[in-house]
Design a protein that fits this description.
Number of helices: 10
Structural class: alpha+beta
Helix content: 10-25%
Length: about 675
Amino acid sequence: MNRFSGRLYGLLATLGVMLAGQANGQTFKSNGYAYDISTTPKWVESVQAPAAPEHDNGAVEYLLVDRQTSAATRSPQYFYHFVERANNLDGLEEISHLKVTFNPDFQQLVWHKLNVIRDGKVIDRLDPQSITLIREETELSQEMFSGYVTSVVFVKGTRVGDVVDFSYSIVGRNPVFGDHYFQGLSMSWQVPVHRLYTRVIAPPNRELRMSAVKYDAQPSIGAYGKSKVYVWDDANVAAYYNEGDYPLDYEPGSFISLTDFPDWDGVIRWAEPLYAARPIKSKELRDLRDELKSMPKEQAVIAALQFAQEQIRYLGIELGQNSHLPRAPDTVIENRYGDCKDKTLLLVSLLRSIGIDAYPALVSWEIASGVDKIAPSPGGFDHVITLVELDGQRYWLDPTRRYQKGSLSTLGYYDYGKALIIGHPSERELVKVGLPDVAATPSMITHERFKVIDYSAPVEHFITTEYTGIEADRMRQRLANKSIREFSQDMLNYMQKLYPGAEQLEPVQITDDSDNNRFIIDEHYRISEFYAPVDDVQATRFYAYSLFEYVKSPAVTRRSGPLTLPGPIRVVHDISLEYPYSLKFTDQAAKVSQSNDYFNYFYQEDYLGRTLNLHHELEFKRAAMPAAETQSFLDLKKQINDSGEHYYQVTRSEETDKSRFADFISSIQSMVYGLEAPQ
């Protein structure tokens, strides 16, 4: 399953709506794909663009965005009409290169007009010789094949100041949606629009349900035969500013969604036939089923999950109805590949065959909990996972993920926000996913030990880093395509940025504690010239580098929208320095504590025997914080920068005895506010 969007005048925030129908006109072909050129359909209402203002407003002036939908017959159509002016050369490049995407398996592209307007003169540029159709497959790198084709038009002879006026329709509907209608429409962009016209002719005798985000205007409602017509006509639509660093479920602009589904239960009823149980005939699957029956239930769940994850490679051939219709488990086994739908149905079928309650669940990688802001439809979902109910606990399992190990309580879990469970006897609305109650917070725990034999000798440096939960999964994935030698070199390169004199004494050691989902990395270095002599002072720096990547500054700090956080996660970084002689600390040991509803940070240093210990602990409790709390995050970043880099200077006392043991004074200074880990 996948979602897609185009340029401003492309498939504007389309939430899965696919159209159907035929269009009269002349047919042309390009690279084996067909498109039509025809006059504007009669059902379309003529809309005029306002006069272009004299002042320049960005590279492109969007004079008109006109979108009209006819869902009144079995041949619904989308009509798009755009009028744009190029204010400079950058804008000229944009309006002279048009791209429209459609799926020829069940859609048809119809061009209506393409005019260039200069000094009031209209120049017709709708030339079939300028239209090329190409199959881009933009998600090919993710092993996704959707069959979408892009119509590319290079408009000839344009100049700065020209207005380009063009329109087209897309007709056709994926039969997997039956006769349902649903649509999502952006109502603002990062550029201003002088006139935004939106018109929808609803399916006859059906009520449309609407949901809006940051958009209060109500449509005017009229009639078109037996159908209602909804019209929004907005002037001078202001641009919104994209601050970035938003959580997935936050929408910075405004949009509306329309649907003829009565509620989420209606969407479930649409999806249930797609995920209906399929008979298992494959001998391999039957043998696996018999093997799973002999196991304790939790062990059987893990074994079935790992079979779907590791024995079936990921490949999404989402052509036609297979954009939403999963393939039968027997077909998946025969092909030895499948996408999220295919793998989920395979896993659900295996678990149900041994008496374990399992259900497909529709979720969204792209907008997470944001699906609850959309009017009920399949359009907001782009992923399918598996819900397992066992011994009163819920586990949300993703058969497309790899490198997962451990028990049901130690697996690395991802919070998908909201889910729509298919076929559950009682859950007929969106439900919160969250993490299982038994799951521990994922963690990254680093222990560094520096052994100082003499201030003029190389220092031995030992590092042990332990990852748990989803962090362990990520490290397994990172190492999957690297040799130990390559990974060791990566670690050495990073360490040499911190300590230029570092050399690796042995390759990195990897311990994968599969049963407990713990992934451990051990490193061993020797650092020459660790202490840099300045007069009678020996100086060096230490870094709690593992914390820095979790507290990067957002692009915009004075925010109106929420800020994404990396939680939930616990990061610990301990540093110990073993000195050759006793030290005397004249400064009071530092201790810092900062806590709120979104994170905890604790730092403490102490000296015991000949060892200085520095302890950093950072926990993010949530995945986002409101804009009003941004300053607390910035304060946290400053605090970690202050306490996460340590500058130590060790000075010999003038008053020494005859032995080599002397008193030393160690002063601790936080240096270079705002410094992050070296790149």
